[in-house]
Amino acid sequence: MARTHRLGNIFNRILLLIFGGAIVACAAIFSLVLQRNAEAELASKALLFLDSMNAVRNYTSNQVKPLLEPQLGEQFLPQAIAAYSARSVFESLHAKKEYADLTYKQATLNPFNPANQADGFEADLLERFRTEPANKQLSGFHTREGAEVFYVARPLVVTQPSCLACHGDPQKAPASLIDRYGSEHGFGWKLGQTVGVHIVSVPAGVPIATARQSFFWFIGIAAVVLAAVIVAINLLLKRTVLRPLSQMTAAAEQISKGRLDFEMESTASFEMKALAAAFERMKRSVVRSMRLLQSVHYDRGRALLAAGDLDGAIQELYNVLNVDPDCVAARVDLARALVRQGRSQEAIAQYNEALRLAPEDPHIHLELGALLLEQGEQAVGLNSRS
Ligand code: HEC
After folding, report:
1. Rounded to the nearest whole angstrom, what is the distance from the C-alpha of residue 197 to the centroid of ligand 1?
2. Which residue among 95, 190, 222, 289 has its CA within the 20 to 30 Å range from the CA of 237?
3. Is residue 62 pLDDT above 70, yes or no?
4. Contact yes or no for 336/305 (Cβ under 8 A)
């Protein structure tokens, strides 16, 4: 039984190793795919939002500003400023509950409006855009006020000389602008300079939680399926291999002990049936050769006994009993040979064994009785006859 268990253990260990490895590999790939999907979803949302804000800026610069420009000398009209209209549009969007988590900022290090002052994170992004001018967009996850957000940022470059009419030299800037914002901040920009970042962020908590949930569902289902497969394989292994194998082991044990009067149980699988049939044939040929061997020893033992070679006869008869301990005739002959050698105690033991095998045989009772009588143990001799 111990051996069959071990085979099952080996099987299970290999299965667990393969399935465990497969689950870990699948989980890693799946988690990567989910993460990518969540990121792509968030990125498309953030980009739509960022491009919308840019469209507002362009509309203001291209269509509103030319109309209002002539009046800017006397009166400051923030409606003509792209940055202002973009911020206003964002603020009215932000006031709605469903967009309360969105953020949009035109962050610069030196703004007119303090609300546009870059914080540490935005300043770092700006620094990256300055050191990597080829980089036109940065995105990723970021924690803002304790919540996880996905951000997309683009560099804010002074591409048009017209920007410098207000953001360049404060001496040349419209007076109404100086009245409103002072001459301290927002000036001194240069053409081609990266002065800030456009940055939007969208909440990432829900898509990430959804991805995590899908991941755990996947792992759970995969684990249940694999457990079911392992159980099924175990049952199959037990039915088709382990049980027939342990039956055959038991059969081989019977043969090795000289017991040949058993039947092999039939099994389901073709291979095991073939093995069982081979076993049966082997058993039959073992029986045949053992019988042959037994009769050779027995005949030789009797011949030696008749010839008076007691040692030889005893040796041969013992050989018969080694092959077939239940052979009563060989045992009785052995007892007779032992009696003739004067080994009465051994002879009595052999007679008793013969009687155990054939309690009804009167000859054995008679010979044992006579022997015991001769030994002077009359009482026991009479007893054995009862
Ligand atoms: C007519 C003057 C004027 C011109 C021309 C102008 N801006 Fe501005 N800009 C402003 C004002 C005023 C603000 C502050 C608006 C507010 O209160 O949000 C501003 C704000 C900004 C901001 C936000 C940071 C800050 O300073 O508050 C950026 C970025 C910006 N402008 C970029 C540009 C670019 C790029 C151009 C050229 C395409 C440009 N501006 C042209 C007047 C101008």
Report:
1. 13
2. 222
3. yes
4. yes
The 3-state DSSP class for residue 141 equals strand
Question: Does the structure show a pLDDT above 50 at 1?
Answer: no
Express each pLDDT in 101-134 by its tens digit.
Answer: 899 999 999 899 999 999 999 999 999 999 999 9
Mutational pocket test of ligand 1: of 110, 163, 164, the residue with most ligand atoms within 8 Å of the beta carbon: 163
How far is the C-alpha of 202 from the C-alpha of 45, rounded, in Å?
Answer: 8
198, 54 Cβ separation under 8 angstroms: yes
270-385: CATH class: mainly alpha
Task: Give DSSP secondary structure letters for 57-96.
Answer: HHHIIIIIHHHHGGGGGTS--GGG-HHHHHHHHHHHHHTS
Please state, in angstroms and rounded to a whole number, the distance separating the CA atoms of residues 167 and 183.
Answer: 10
Residues facing residue 134 across a β-bridge = none
Q: Which residues pair with 117 in a beta bridge?
A: 108
Segments of the chain assigned to CATH 1.25.40.10: 270-385
The Å distance, Cα 138 to ligand 1 centre, comes to 23
* Candidate from 113, 172, 187 with most ligand 1 atoms within 8 A of CB, to mutate: 113
167 Cα: distance to centroid of ligand 1 (angstroms) = 7
State if residue 167 touches ligand 1 by the CB under 6 angstroms criterion: yes
- Distance of CA 177 to CAs 22, 113, 358, Å? 66, 11, 130
Question: For residue 378, what is the enclosing H or E element?
Answer: helix 378-385
Q: pTM here?
A: 0.66
Hey, whose CA ends up nearest to atom 36 of ligand 1? Answer: 163
Of 102-111, 118-127, 277-286, 338-347, which range is least confident?
A: 277-286
| C-beta 156 within 6 A of ligand 1 | yes
For residue range 225-274, what is the model confidence (pLDDT) as tens digits?
988 998 998 898 888 888 888 888 888 888 777 676 766 666 667 877 88
